[in-house]
Amino acid sequence: MVAAADSDGPLAGKGRAVTVRAPVAFFRKPSVLPGFGLTLGFTLSYLSLIVLVPLAALIVKSSGLGWNGFWAAVTTPRVLAAFEVSFGLSFAAALTNAVFGFLVAWVLVRYDFPGKRLVDALVDLPFALPTAVAGIALSALYAPNGWLGKPLNELFGLKVAFTPLGIAIALTFIGLPFVVRTVQPILQDLPAEEEEAAASLGASRFQTFSSVILPAILPALVTGFALSFARGIGEYGSVIFIAGNMPGLTEILPLLIVIKLEQYDYAGAAAVGTAMLGVSFIMLLILNLLQQWMRSRHAR
Fold first, then answer.
1. Is 115 left (phi over 0), alpha (psi -120 to 50) or beta?
2. What sign has the CA pseudo-torsion 255, 256, 260, 266?
3. Where does the pLDDT of residue 259 fall: very low under 50, low under 70, confident under 90, or very high at 90 and above?
4. Dist CA 168 CA 244 (whole Å)
5. For the whole model, what pTM was predicted?
6. Contact 74/271 with Cβ under 8 angstroms?
7. 73-84 pLDDT tens trace
8. Phi/psi class of residue 248: alpha, beta or left (left: φ > 0; alpha: ψ in -120 to 50)?
9. Burial code of 68-92, b = ≥16 C-beta within 10 A, e = fewer?
């Protein structure tokens, strides 16, 4: 508001106040994060090109079969058996890793022993080792005449290579680091005072573990389980050498997709891939919802 007096006209000298409205300038509030719009646009564009566009192309390719053709392609006995092998053994391997991965992380965090750094480095070996090399090594190790396969076969009559058990071992091998590296930081940040307080109140070791430690690490444990499970579903290199690749028994979904591509059945391969994508998405969504529920419950 600006007040001014009339100097001309009949009201001159009477000091009449005239209200003048100053122009209002609208300024955009600066963002706390500089370049937020640019980085967000780059992130969405990058994810679209790397993730969304290939997945959309997969779905579009499979839609060319029509619903009846799509359903017929993904419900053949061979495809259903491959679904059972891939998802069932991936789940079993991830569950095994959830148990033993937690034990490995616990030992690495809570105890000091000679060679601890070496053991800690060996956990990351499946990350660095090419999957095909891992598959060849496991096949040679668990073959009927291998270092471990021969005594297992002679003493217990247990055949590992070229059986579903061999696939489970390969998936366990490549999925173990996901659980260990997810749980390990949580155990390191877990205050020891909480365990001491529980012990001082008369809690047993099992009660301390179930009431203090487990609720704190359970979300991270579920995350590691989900990562190990997702890796196992799509694993190819380390499995095909030890699986035997027998249709209906040890044939995995990634191998079946490769076989369909080699037979120029691109629509059928896309249909199997789309079904695999849908089932994987639903299972991972359930695991993520379970993880969020556990975190909210622990926060209370």
1. left
2. negative
3. very high
4. 13
5. 0.81
6. yes
7. 999 999 999 999
8. left
9. eebeebbeeeebebbbebbbebbbb
DSSP result, the chain: -EEEE--SSTTTTS--EEEEPPPPPP-PPPPSSTTHHHHHHHHHHHHIIIIIHHHHHHHHHHHTTHHHHHHHHHSSHHHHHHHHHHHHHHHHHHHHHHHHHHHHHHHHHH---TTHHHHHHHHTHHHHS-HHHHHHHHHHHHSTTSTTHHHHHHHH----TTSHHHHHHHHHHHHHHHHHHHHHHHHHHS-HHHHHHHHHTT--HHHHIIIIIHHHHHHHHHHHHHHHHHHHHH--HHHHHHH---TTTT--HHHHHHHHHHTT-HHHHHHHHHHHHHHHHHHHHHHHHHHHHHHHHHH-
Residue 40: left if φ>0, alpha if ψ -120 to 50, beta else—which one? Answer: alpha
- As beta bridge partners, residue 19 has 3
Residue 86 to residue 154: CA distance in whole angstroms: 29
Structure tokens at 34: 């500089």
Q: What is the CA radius of gyration of the chain?
A: 31
Six-digit token pair at 55? Answer: 């997945």
Is the pLDDT at 179 greater than 90? The verdict is: yes
Q: What is the mean pLDDT of residues 142-166?
A: 90
